[in-house]
Amino acid sequence: MFCTLLNLVLFISGPIVVEAAKVNKKGKTVKVDCGRVRGIYNVTSRAYSFRGIPYASPPVGNLRWRPPFPVNSTNKNCWRGRLNARKFGSPCLKEKPPFTANTTIGNENCLYLNVWTPSLSRILVTRQQSSWLVTMMLSIINYRLNAFGFMSLDMLRVGSHTNTSGYYGFMDMLTGLHWVQNNIRQFGGDPNQVTPFGQSSGGTAIYALLASPLGRGLFHKA
């Protein structure tokens, strides 16, 4: 899993109680560079969620094993009207645990991201009782997996404008981080306080992002 925080981390002490979610179906509409997106407001957690926002065109057909093609007004591949961002997009194609059933889940049309935020206004850091109370905003970015994201072959390198192959999943992450820089202010986030983090293979990806000059300026901590 690969995620980004758009503000600083909220440290919580004591037991965490999970309650059943109460959702305000009216939600909220936010305007990004590709148009309007309508999310959901969770009354229980008092947070907004925007799910299944495409940040790149589906990597299928001529775009399979190619760098991601960003969804933006310049590329003229935006959605029409208002995007209903209430449902998660498909996960990227992968084997279904426990990896012995010879089955897969997800599909190739998977380059979506999700945003959770407690406020659509600019979030400020406040000090209470000699300890920092810091709110956070979270974005989860899907990226291509397995052979679709990391297969390296000379036949895929030939004809590629990057003269490489096998880095498609990392390119997806970088494209997602560019989307964050361009749009996250509209959700109350701070593009100057981006912290990517990951678990398992997503954790390994953080090292790649730190090593790559392509990630310069896209995040500030890791």
UniProtKB/TrEMBL annotation:
It holds the Pfam family COesterase. Residues 1-20 form the signal peptide. Residues 28-120, 140-222 form the Carboxylesterase type B domain. InterPro entries: AB_hydrolase_fold, CarbesteraseB, Type-B_Carboxylest/Lipase. The keyword Signal applies. Keywords: Signal. PANTHER family: CARBOXYLESTERASE. This is FUMD-like protein. It comes from Mya arenaria (Soft-shell clam).
